[in-house]
Amino acid sequence: xxxxxxxxxxxxxxxxxxxxxxxxxxxxxxxxxxxxxxxxxxxxxxxxxxxxxxxxxxxxxxxxxxxxxxxxxxxxxxxxxxxxxxxxxxxxxxxxxxxxxxxxxxxxxxxxxxxxxxxxxxxxxxxxxxxxxxxxxxxxxxxxxxxxxxxxxxxxxxxxxxxxxxxxxxxxxxxxxxxxxxxxxxxxxxxxxxxxxxxxxxxxxxxxxxxxxxxxxxxxxxxxxxxxxxxxxxxxxxxxxxxxxxxxxxxxxxxxxxxxxxxxxxxxxxxxxxxxxxxxxxxxxxxxxxxxxxxxxxxxxxxxxxxxxxxxxxxxxxxxxxxxxxxxxxxxxxxxxxxxxxxxxxxxxxxxxxxxxxxxxxxxxxxxxxxxxxxxxxxxxxxxxxxxxxxxxx
Length: 394
Ligand SMILES: *Cc1c(COP(=O)(O)O)cnc(C)c1O
Hints:
This protein is an alpha/beta fold. Helices cover about 40% and strands about 15% of the residues. The mean pLDDT is about 95.
């Protein structure tokens, strides 16, 4: 199989798995225990905290381990909202293209009296800093804009948004799950107050992530129980997972420029060749996009059928976000950049990793072209478009 769904999840790197294994076998201690096996686990967790902090230019005491991106997103937002409630600041600014872990948390807050402003991302899928500035009010407690989008790969002007938030004294949280381990992230330089990351998006294990909380920013816990994670996240530490997160992140950071160069070469080849298909169009900004993201709409076909046929051809791809496939609603991200419903349904997302080769990409190009042509031949919609009964949109 050729795996091109790395925004959905990634393969655990061999070096990561090898580093994790001892923590299931002989080093299975509970980091809260006082005996030596427990104390070794404690040391390992704290060493991981230091390395994870270093990777984003934070301090160890600003990192809390969680069960992944969704939990980190929930905790960041619910925590700031709780502070907002205390100070009677119940307005939040976000974008229309956030991950559901963010959007659904905000929906819950709207039901309990918060007001949320959803910023436009225009046709290129990017928030405008001016809009952020203009939407901040006296009662705004949080600005929450993702670092990079999981569907269309667009990279937001995080540093500039952070700057505006600092000036206006509003907490700035960014869901950086698609960015950490893929592109440079520096929480100090980029004026970030809170950030979430997830190991399985950069060749680490599923079910472990972290939240960065700048010193001085209050954090409330989501999960009650023991005193783990300095009282902010109860539950026996996932020691093997935390080690996996650390090693995966160190590897990703160490080889980042090499990986970026490799991915961009493959990405640009895919984009160039796939856009030769008539009535196709790239989703999201051409330049300000993740090195591993390709997302293209093909008019007159169904993304679902495209995925199934590509699967038969040995290619794992995605259409819109993995979380919404199975639902009939087109992706909220594609709608937000102005794609009409019927066009949004014909989207194909190919997300690369360091493991993909040029040979694989050549094969993918050939097969996508073949499958798109095949589907269009059978499509009544395409027939109407060709006969002029229906107007082409792209
Ligand atoms: C995958 C993803 C999440 C969720 O992370 P999990 O670790 O799977 O819970 C959140 N935000 C973005 C942008 C993602 O891509």
